[in-house]
User: Fold this.
Amino acid sequence: GRDGMQYKQWYQRRVRGTHIDRALSEAHRVLKPGGRFMCLEFGEVSNPAIAAMYERYSFDVIPVMGHLVAGDMESYQYLVESIRKFPKQQEFAQMIVDAGFGVVDYENLTFGVTAIHSGYKIE
Assistant:
């Protein structure tokens, strides 16, 4: 962006799992030196009790709500499945490092249901 920051919400899953590295490299390429990359993405819940409840909600409620509200259960089932296939927080952070970013970190939100990842283009 103009201010040297890039924000991506749930973007990385949409680039297909095999191309996340390319998307991160492209983000690094277009960001000006000193700019900050930030990505809000779904994550892995570390608390076993909360993880079990979230898993049940994800697979038993979200697709049904998608069917009732949007008439499209399949897309919401895909959403839940794509969240599970996305790299976990530490793995995604390492991918950001591998793309050339420095000072990479992430913050879990809502027990890790989502996480904000960030890194800076140092060069």
User: Anything to note?
Assistant: The chain has a mean pLDDT of 88. The beta strands are 5-9, 36-42, 102-109, 114-120.
